[in-house]
Amino acid sequence: MLVDATLIAAAFVAGTLNAVAGGGSFLTLPALVFAGVPAVSANATGTLALLPGYLSAAWGFRGDTQPPPGLSMRTLVVLSLIGGSTGALLLLLTPDATFRRVVPWLLLLATLLFVLAPRLTASRQAGARSPAVARVSVLAVTIYGGYFNGGLGILLLALFGLLGQTRLLAANGLKNQVSALLTLIAVALYAWGGLIAWREAAIMAGAALLGGYLGARGARRLPSAWLRAGIVATGLTMSLLFFLR
């Protein structure tokens, strides 16, 4: 009972966190490892459990979603599906020990990019808004999301800022839509590869769904500066925790 309650609580908070900041996988992954699920399988299972949260958050932000300059929604859909499937296939080939080593570095990179995004956007507008650069950047981030998913929201918000999307709510809505798309294709491949712990995923999915929707609605009431501070704090805290593991 204690293990199941921990999984439910982690999924609810993670769904809320993903809707407003990202980094929810850093709650679900330790909870699943605590429940006895191996690390790579825990990553895949946590990603599946958070999928309903991504979907509900995307619905909650549906009126605010707007792609950055130079990209259409159709292009983002295609890139999300290609990147998510590529990253998932890479995870299937990654040993547990390798996976554990790269996780904290990836999250730290995502957090630093988000911190630097406003300055980089101001100083590199022409390059950031090039359609070719935008497509390659989105593809790279979606591959990351299909591989790990932890910190994906932080990295997507940083990227959309670099590409010229200055409205945080619009970037948040787009972040959740892209996350949902790439996660859909990724979890299908995780299931095909036998990485999903189905019982634990079922326990967590409903809580993540509720957390994602409530988080999306609550984000509208928070000032942008508070959201940015929360995103940075989440990224740095989770990076430190994984370095210390």
TrEMBL record:
Q: How does it sit in the membrane?
A: Multi-pass membrane protein
Residue runs in coiled coils: none
One GO CC term, this protein: plasma membrane
Q: What is its main location?
A: membrane
| Transmembrane stretches, start-end | 45-61, 73-93, 99-117, 138-163, 178-195, 225-244
Key words, A-Z: Cell membrane, Membrane, Transmembrane, Transmembrane helix, Transport
Compartments annotated for it: namely:
Cell membrane
Which Pfam families does the UniProt record give?
TauE (PF01925)
Q: Which family does it belong to?
A: Belongs to the 4-toluene sulfonate uptake permease (TSUP) (TC 2.A.102) family.
Q: What is this protein called?
A: Probable membrane transporter protein
Q: Which organism is it from?
A: Variovorax boronicumulans
